[in-house]
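A student in our group prepared the protein record below, which I am reviewing. I have pasted the whole thing underneath without changing anything:
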Amino acid sequence: MVTSPGAEAQQFHRDVASAVVSRSSLAVSCQVSIEDTAPTQGALEVVPGTNHYDARVSDRERLGDPRYAQLPVAVPAGTATVYMQHTMHRGGANTHAKERPFYFFTLMGDGIAPPGLAYTMQLEDIGRWQLDGEKLAPRTVECNLR
């Protein structure tokens, strides 16, 4: 993925629906920085403390509470940032002259259904497909990852 110069900040959000938010989540979101990232380069921003979910406090209240200050995650190239899917976060505005390239993926516990992210794939699908001309086709050689 790439956050281009001029990109606006996302709204703070969670990668799972509020109906499935819990502290016992078995899935995490991961970002790997391809280049050194400046805070003004559309860096990942997290709201510390929101990994401890409390249904009595709304997300809107958390964002207005100075105890939950937003923290930009400006990191050197090759850094892997791992956070629980229910942690409030966003991609910040990119006011820098350079784009911010990064890999994003989700790691999930065995038997956990994807939370609906379009770029999430099941373990058994890795290595099973290939491009055949312009079509997606099953690989002719099976890939066993277990």
